[in-house]
TrEMBL record:
GO terms for cellular component: tRNA methyltransferase complex. Keywords: Methyltransferase, S-adenosyl-L-methionine, Transferase, tRNA processing. InterPro entries: SAM-dependent_MTases_sf, tRNA_(Gua-N-7)_MeTrfase_Trmb, tRNA_methyltr_TrmB_bact. Gene3D superfamilies: Vaccinia Virus protein VP39. Catalyzes the formation of N(7)-methylguanine at position 46 (m7G46) in tRNA. One of its GO terms (molecular function) is tRNA (guanine(46)-N7)-methyltransferase activity. Belongs to the class I-like SAM-binding methyltransferase superfamily. TrmB family. Pathway: tRNA modification; N(7)-methylguanine-tRNA biosynthesis. Substrate binds at K122, D154, T192, E193, Y194, E195. It comes from the Bacteria. It comes from Limosilactobacillus rudii. NCBIfam families: PRK00121.2-2, tRNA (guanosine(46)-N7)-methyltransferase TrmB. It catalyses: guanosine(46) in tRNA + S-adenosyl-L-methionine = N(7)-methylguanosine(46) in tRNA + S-adenosyl-L-homocysteine. The gene is trmB. This is tRNA (guanine-N(7)-)-methyltransferase.
C-alpha cells in the first residue's frame, strides 16, 4: 500500500496518544492497562487503513485488539477511522512488525493476523516476507503457547511461501482455504480493504490458520 505523505498525519498521531501508541516499547508487558477490560489480546501486523481491525473490534467486544502499521500516513488514516467509533477494545500502534519482541512480553498475545502482507516476490527479498522464519520465531515468542496465526492473501506466491515456511518451522495447520469467499469459513469473515478490492475483481482469497504446538 503506497500513499502520499500527508501533512496532518504526525499532528493527528501526536494529538491522540490515548488511541495510537507511537512508542510501543514503553507498554511492553502492560498492554492490558490500555483497555477497559482485561481479555485476550489479538494483534494485526500491517493493518493498512484499519478496516479489518476496526470491524473485528466492533464484532468482538470480548477481545482486545491492537492494529500495527509501519507507514505513518497509513497509520494516521486508520487512526482517523478509529476515532469515529467508540471502541474501548481497540488500540493502534505506529511501529514495525520486525520489532515485536520489543513491544510485547513473551505470551502477551493470544492471536495474530497477517492480512494481504506485502508479497516481496523477488527471491532476494524473501527475508522481508512477514512469514519468513525469522518473523515466525518472533511471533512464537510473543504468542501464548496456544496462540494462533491467521493469514489471508490474494497472492498465491506469498501463500505457497507461507505454507512452506510455516510447515518447515514445525507449525501445524488448523485450516487451509483456497477460496475463502466460497467456503463455510466465510460466514464470520471480516473483509480488509485489499480483500474487498481483489474479491471484486473475482480473485480467490486464500486463508490459513496455524499454530506452534
Ligand atoms: N491489511 C491491510 C493492508 C495490506 S497492505 C489490508 O488487507 O487491506 C500491507 C500493509 O502492511 C501496508 O500498509 C504496509 O505498510 C504494512 N507493513 C508492511 N511491513 C510491515 C511491518 N514490518 N510492520 C508493520 N506494518 C507493515
Amino acid at each position: 500500500m503506497r500513499v502520499k505523505h500527508k501533512k496532518w498525519a504526525d499532528p493527528l498521531i501526536a494529538a491522540h496518544p490515548e488511541m495510537m501508541v507511537d512508542n510501543a516499547p514503553e507498554l511492553k508487558g502492560k498492554w492490558q492497562s490500555r483497555f477497559v477490560k482485561k481479555q485476550p489480546l489479538h494483534l494485526e501486523v500491517g493493518m493498512g487503513k484499519g478496516q479489518f481491525i476496526i470491524g473485528m473490534a466492533k464484532a468482538h467486544p470480548e477481545i482486545n485488539f491492537i492494529g500495527l502499521e509501519i507507514q505513518r500516513t497509513v497509520a494516521a488514516i486508520a487512526l482517523k477511522k478509529a476515532l469515529e467509533e467508540e471502541l474501548p477494545n481497540l488500540q493502534l500502534i505506529c511501529g514495525d512488525g520486525e520489532d515485536l519482541q520489543e513491544y510485547f512480553e513473551p505470551g502477551e498475545v493470544a492471536k495474530m493476523y497477517l492480512n494481504f502482507s506485502d508479497p516481496w516476490p523477488k527471491k532476494r527479498h524473501a527475508k522481508r516476507r512477514l512469514t519468513y522464519k525469522t518473523f515466525l520465531a518472533t511471533y512464537e515468542k510473543i504468542l501464548q503457547a496456544q496462540g494462533i496465526i491467521e493469514l489471508k492473501t490474494d497472492n498465491m506466491g506469498l501463500f505457497e511461501f507461507s505454507l512452506e515456511s510455516m510447515n518447515n518451522y514445525g507449525m501445524r495447520f488448523d485450516g487451509v482455504w483456497l477460496d475463502l469467499h466460497h467456503s463455510e469459513e466465510n460466514e464470520h469473515n471480516i473483509e480488509t480493504e485489499y480483500e474487498q478490492k481483489f474479491a471484486a475483481k473475482g480473485q480467490p482469497i486464500y486463508k490459513l490458520i496455524a499454530n506452534f504446538k
